[in-house]
Design brief:
Blueprint (H helix, E strand, L loop, with lengths): L1 E2 H4 L5 E5 L5 E2 L2 E2 L10 E3 L12 H6 L4 E4 L10 E5 L2 H12 L8 E6 L4 H14 L4 E4 L3 E4 L2 E4 L7 H13 L4 E5 L2 H5 L10 E4 L7 H4 L2 H13 L6 E5 L5 H4 L6 E6 L6 E9 L2 E6 L2 E5 L4 H16 L4 H8 L10 E4 L5 E5 L4 H14 L6 E5 L9 H12 L2 E4 L9 H9 L10 E3 L3 H11 L5 E5 L6 E4 L2 E4 L2 H15 L1
Parallel strand pairs: 4-5, 5-6, 6-7, 8-12, 8-13, 9-12, 13-14, 14-15, 15-16, 20-24, 21-22, 21-24, 22-23
Antiparallel strand pairs: 1-3, 2-7, 9-10, 10-11, 16-17, 17-18, 19-20, 25-26
Length: about 500
């Protein structure tokens, strides 16, 4: 229970009706969760406007309403009018949970690709070096070794601050957090105090939401614009959008790269299916992670750790023992030397990166079979681009379903086919059932061949018509590779 006047600190209030000297049980923006003594904040969402539920929540026991537009019919409750309900939610959530982000070191990671890997590796690194830490990621949220299920790349402000509060109470000193463009645009991170921000890269993704690439870029940039002066802003200068992130930031500007001039520099010495040998700021370093994109991820993790005050030698020693993140170039090797790779790549750039990595390692005497699809009810513009990318780098391509949601899988696959030129059509087959598609890829593969199953990565479900059916790419791939061994 908190005093209303206390949780309104920092909120830009347009008008107050009633007394703020009252106690609040909890804060809610979901009308279905309201109980007696609660505060309800009306959010204008992409699907639903919370203002339409004001009378309902009052009947359910809400005693405070925060809204952008005051209702014509006003009951005997407290009304707080604000200009931006979404931003206000972040501030009051932070106040309600006693400002937890200021009591630990919170580092945010944003960009199109690499967020999950960098945040997860930072968490594992600092845990391994003896610092109690927390993780907010696509795959899972963690409070030290306790797993808390993740539902969004970035949770809502109430969930974020509640989790951060639990981390503080359990002694965490650090938290590493994926920061999505949606969460920035929707002010889900408002009220949080970041110790540092990391920018990975920016490419075509989420344009179903942002509509234009410029809007997508501005959403990412907003995160860096709002970092405090004592935080660090660490950007990848090999991405041309990196320097844009720093244009208006007050934070300490730092950079990393494999190609250009930067504060943290890396060179790839060896890159194969056994891992990477890198030279980072003049020191050689081995990792079992694979590919140039992971060289960027490892460099970003190293740089962030140094900026957080750690010693280079200790960071590199600990980092060398860390394993790949689930569903990110997650590979298995059968006894007859077929390589199976599962990766979350679901954007053109991510798919290109994975295929380029395989291309840089393979001998080209083997066959590369790529299995992938595209999610339904999401950015349709990227589908033909992904089709083109897959065919240019693969010997065989199997198009299949990937969380079709409310769309017809065959229609999604036709959209992908629209990007495939005539010279590649003989490489492509379409199998709607994803399990059958993976099975077919395994039946095609011979000793030395490579199978890439892209798009779902760590996900353990296939979403069809609103229902999430159990589905695990890696488990299915492993099962059929074993069958394949017996049949070859």
């Amino acid at each position: 229970m908190k005093k209303l006047s206390d949780i309104l600190k920092g909120v830009e209030i347009v008008k107050t009706i009633g007394s703020t000297n009252i106690d609040i049980n909890s804060i809610q923006f979901d009308s279905r969760k309201i109980n007696n003594g609660d505060l309800f904040i009306a959010i204008k969402g992409t699907q639903v406007d919370g203002h339409t539920f004001i009378q309902k929540v009052i009947h359910s026991g809400a005693i405070v309403i925060i809204c952008e537009v005051l209702p014509e019919q006003q009951n005997e409750v407290v009304y707080i009018q604000v200009n931006n309900s979404s931003k206000t939610l972040g501030i009051i959530a932070s106040n309600f949970y006693e400002f937890p982000s200021s009591k630990l070191k919170l580092v945010g990671v944003t960009g199109t690709n690499g967020k999950t890997t960098i945040a997860s590796l930072l968490f594992e690194l600092f845990q391994s070096m003896g610092y109690p830490s927390g993780l907010l990621s696509t795959i899972q949220n963690k409070i030290e070794n306790k797993i808390v299920t993740a539902t969004h790349t970035t949770p809502d402000p109430i969930q974020i601050n509640k989790l951060l509060g639990q981390m503080v109470n359990e002694g965490c000193e650090y938290c590493f957090m994926e920061v999505s463009s949606h969460s920035i645009d929707q002010d889900r991170i408002a009220g949080l105090v970041f110790t540092g921000g990391i920018f990975t890269n920016l490419s075509h993704d989420h344009l179903d939401y942002h509509l234009t690439f410029d809007n997508y870029l501005k959403a990412k940039k907003k995160f860096f614009d709002e970092l405090p002066a004592n935080a660090f802003a660490l950007i990848n200068t090999d991405d041309r959008n990196g320097k844009i992130m720093l244009q208006n930031t007050k934070a300490i500007r730092m950079s990393y790269s494999l190609k250009g001039v930067s504060d943290f520099k890396c060179k790839i010495i060896e890159n194969n299916f056994d891992g990477l040998l890198l030279k980072i700021n003049g020191q050689e370093f081995c990792s079992n992670l694979i590919g140039s994109f992971n060289a960027y991820n490892l460099l970003a993790v190293y740089a962030a750790a140094i900026l957080l005050g750690e010693k280079p030698e200790e960071v590199l020693t600990t980092l060398s023992n860390l394993k790949t993140v689930e569903g990110r170039f997650d590979y298995i090797r059968s006894v007859n030397n077929i390589i199976g790779i599962v990766d979350y790549a679901h954007s053109p750039d991510a798919l290109q990166n994975v295929l380029n990595t395989i291309d840089s390692i393979r001998t080209h005497n083997e066959t590369l079979i790529t299995v992938f699809g595209a999610g339904g009810d999401r950015d349709k513009q990227k589908r033909p681009i992904m089709g083109k990318v897959a065919c240019e780098k693969s010997d065989k391509v199997i198009l299949t379903s990937d969380n079709p949601r409310s769309e017809v899988p065959e229609e999604i696959m036709k959209d992908i086919e629209n990007g495939i030129g005539g010279e590649y059509l003989n490489r492509v087959i379409s199998i709607t059932n994803r399990k059958e598609a993976i099975k077919t890829a395994c039946s095609f593969a011979r000793s030395g061949d490579i199978i890439l199953v892209a798009g779902k990565g760590h996900e353990k479900y296939q979403e069809i018509e609103g229902i999430k059916h159990p589905f695990d790419d890696k488990e299915i791939l492993k099962n059929y590779l074993l069958t394949n061994i017996n049949s070859n």
